[in-house]
Amino acid sequence: MSGDFRDFEDIKCLLADKPNKITLLDEETGGKHGTVDSGIGERLTTRGKLLKERRKIVDVQVFMALIGFVFMLVENELFYAGFITKLSTMSIVLKSFVSLSTVILLIAVVLYYVTEIKMRMTDNQIDDWRLLVAFPNTNLKLSLEMLICIIHPLPFNVTVPISGPDGDTVYVSLDPVLSILMIFRVYLLGRVAVVHNKLLSGTATRSLSAFNRVDIDGVFVFKALMTSNPGSVLIAIMVFILLTNSWAMMNCETFYQFERENSNFWNSMWIISITFLTVGYGDTYPVSVCGRCVSVTTGLMGIGTTALLITVILQKLEQTRAEKYVYSFVKKAQLDNGRKMAAADVIKNWFQLCNLRRRYSVITRDQIRVHRKLQHAIYTMREARNRRDSIGESTIGLIEISKAISDVEQRTESLQTAIKEIKPGLVHMQRTTRDLQLMINDIYKVLIKK
């Protein structure tokens, strides 16, 4: 759901009705949750039922998507083994089961959006569902999801013309392309992770996300996993890409190439591996147009995954704040010692040079040697000071800047408080000075009269 409360006015509307007090049961566990107003209690009870209904709908979606994918795999593998053809009865029956599961999946997708709208109506106290259907966002999301889920191999054999090796037109089945595009149904796994996680689907989390305009969806789950377990997520992504793209490459090379030397899973896995790693030895390569499209897609995925992997490695290699402070302290101490030693060398060489100048009227080799030592000591002292200053600048981050700003604000507030405390005293002193001036004037007038 995109958001339960889009403004603080929604909360005001939610708390508007205040009838009799009732004991509210928790929407997830059924235990006592507290005593609230009956209007809010009824809405939260309804919302709890809708959450359970939505969870069941998502389970049906994933189950139907998985069943359709399994039947599709069985039909393809039987065709590869030569047990059936695309026009045989077994193939038509298996693809009919795929179509049936797809129809149920599409119905579940529509019911999911209907349940989402009902939940938003319950949360915002709106009776007309048309007020919550944001055009074109909701319509585009529903249309895109329906388009992704509707793609599947049809029960009848759909053929397309392609050019053969001799330039002749050959009709081939469209089932491999439709089977490969069924992989996009994997987005439903993110939805399952959201609805079956009590932390992400709870009332507090959904309300907090609505306040901050954050959508709790599959993308949010992926970002959270990349933050908590980036290594495991990247390994899972790479294994998934390797297996699915290898299967897709095998499909394309089996159906659409006429010299079937690369039409096995292991050769397809080798092609995908060298393409994903952007190596490309050239010993094996896809021949069909479909296989080349899969190869290009794999290369783009490899580039993106490599970029993510490099980012994760850099984050792991970066020093923590504590490590930075320890290293900076030790390095500063070392540079301070080096600076002190260089300063001592400067003084020592200066006295030696002055002594040599008093003893000899001409420039000797000893004077040149001591002078060079003096220059080197001065350079070392300045270099140590500059490096120490640079280390101090590198350890200043956003946290330090924020702390410094907070300290300045606290000192400013304390100064304002002190000024407010001093102000009454200054006013009292001004009044006292005025009274003294009046008294002095009176005394002066009395003295003049006498």
Description:
With 450 residues, this protein is mainly alpha-helical. The chain is 73% helix and 5% strand. The chain has 15 helices and four strands. It has helices spanning 8-14, 38-81, 89-124, 137-150, 175-181, 188-195, 198-201, 203-211, 218-228, 230-256, 265-276, 289-317, 321-359, 365-394, 398-449; strands at residues 21-25, 32-37, 159-163, 169-173. It has a two-stranded antiparallel sheet. The protein has a two-stranded antiparallel sheet with strand order 3-4. A hairpin with a 5-residue loop joins β3 (159-163) and β4 (169-173). α2 (38-81) runs antiparallel to α6, α6 (188-195) packs across α9 (218-228) and α11 (265-276) crosses α12 (289-317).
Order of strands across the biggest sheet? 1-2
Helical content stands at over 70%
**H/E topology pattern:** HEEHHHEEHHHHHHHHHHH
* Total beta strands: 4
- Please describe the biggest sheet, giving its number of strands, its sense, and whether it closes into a barrel: 2 strands, antiparallel
Q: Give the amount of beta strand, in percent.
A: under 5%
Which ranges are low-confidence, i.e. pLDDT below 50, for 5 or more consecutive residues? 1-37
Mean of the pLDDT scores?
Answer: 80
Work out the radius of gyration.
39 Å
The backbone outline, from C-alpha atoms, is flat
Structural class: mainly alpha
Number of helices: 15
